[in-house]
Design brief:
alpha/beta; VC0802-like; Rossmann fold; 2 domains; 11 helices; about 30% helix; about 25% strand
Length: about 375
């Protein structure tokens, strides 16, 4: 398929090890985990596969050059020197994303602005025509990363963030990011071996991600486009070969995935999103108050949910609400592995159950804990004996 090259997959805090596992299983080489990113090597076909199949990646970047940079003039000259005509036509469009960790460069938007100037000036000087800026659907999305004095310029092979799977057209007030949802399901240890439930399902993100994990459906199958599709060297036949190979690995799922919500509109939105993803045969969603529910079968159950934190969704009595979560789990859901994420540490104390695990994650900018409650059949003591 061609020569291997270095790539960087960006992810969310706490999901780095999962992304390493995914990349290894897909066949990447020279994998190295960082903070919120994983470096690896592969060929063009692997770049296509990583975009299509990685559940915990937000971006797949292809670095094209790195250099020392000390001043704005340095940045401009060295970006200008890159042969951008190899990567796009002058009549195309660009978007620049920048991340900076530097004393010299403190504003990422300014770095993006200078990078854009250098690129369009090169085209204007060499070809008499300059590309436009298009932040939504550019011909070429460029990523600039400045760490102290080292500037790395990469092509963004993903385009829009990979959490935008393509199935979620309907959102509720505080929807969870699809990459975070998939990562949480994977962190819980669930991969389709039993029933799964989201008792506060909102727009259905956990349900859709769980069904795709259980059936081994590529998470980005429903996306309209990837960044690499507008590159001059895009190989559509190779991409279709990669896609066909991934589709052949889809497997059957013999358990149930179901969700509750008290909000009729949320349930309607969840059903639409699940339909968009062609997953309705695996998922049942209904209007139901979790606090008035009980486990429906004697089978093992995994429960994963994102309750209100009293941040974007306000609750009249948040402490009582979290207390009801603990009471419902204790009395209604024996034989259940219950996982939930929250940023409200005070409210969490009112669940009244001792978590067996706490994992630090971020839901957006909110530092959160992903906690695990193991609800035994009978007493914990009897279970151990």
């Amino acid at each position: 398929m061609g020569k291997n090259f270095k790539m960087v997959a960006k992810t969310l805090y706490g999901l780095e090890d999962l992304l390493v596992q995914e990349l290894r299983q897909l066949g990447a080489s020279n994998i190295e985990a960082g903070t919120r990113n994983v470096a690896f090597e592969g060929d063009t076909g692997f770049m296509y596969k990583a975009n299509l199949c990685c559940r915990t990646a937000i971006k797949i970047l292809k670095p094209i050059t790195a250099f020392n940079v000390f001043t704005e003039e340095d940045l401009y000259k060295k970006v200008y020197a890159i042969p951008w005509e190899n990567y796009m036509e002058a009549n195309g469009s660009i978007a620049i994303d920048s991340t900076v960790f530097s004393k010299q460069f403190t504003h990422s938007q300014y770095v993006s602005f200078k990078t854009k100037d250098a690129i369009v000036d090169r085209f204007r000087d060499k070809e008499g025509e300059r590309p436009d800026v298009d932040l939504d659907h550019p011909t070429l999305r460029v990523n600039v990363h400045i760490d102290r004095n080292i500037c790395t310029v990469s092509l963004d092979s993903s385009g829009q963030s990979l959490h935008k799977r393509g199935y979620k057209t309907e959102n509720t007030v505080a929807p969870i990011n699809e990459v975070l949802a998939a990562g949480m399901i994977m962190l819980s240890g669930w991969s389709g071996q039993c029933d799964l439930m989201d008792p506060m399902c909102g727009s259905g993100t956990f349900l859709a991600e769980a069904a795709m994990i259980a059936c081994n459906i590529p998470p980005n199958l429903n996306r309209d486009e990837f960044g690499f599709e507008t590159w001059p060297d895009f190989d559509v036949d190779l991409y279709e070969l990669i896609e066909d190979s991934a589709l052949k690995k889809i497997r059957d799922f013999h358990f149930n995935i179901y969700g509750f919500d008290t909000d009729t509109f949320a349930v309607k939105k969840a059903k639409q999103n699940i339909k968009n993803a062609n997953l309705q045969e695996f998922i049942e969603v209904k209007v139901q108050d979790f606090f008035n529910s009980k486990k429906q079968t004697g089978r093992q159950l995994y429960m994963i949910f994102n309750p209100p934190y009293d941040e974007r969704i306000s609750v009249n009595d948040i402490e009582k609400f979290y207390g009801n979560i603990g009471t419902t789990l204790k009395h209604g859901y024996p034989g259940t592995q219950a996982w939930m994420i929250t940023s409200n540490m005070e409210a969490l104390k009112h669940v009244g159950l001792r978590p067996s695990r706490k994992i630090k994650l971020y839901n957006g900018k909110l530092e959160s804990k992903f906690v695990h409650y193991e609800m035994y059949e009978g007493s914990k003591k009897a279970k151990k004996q």
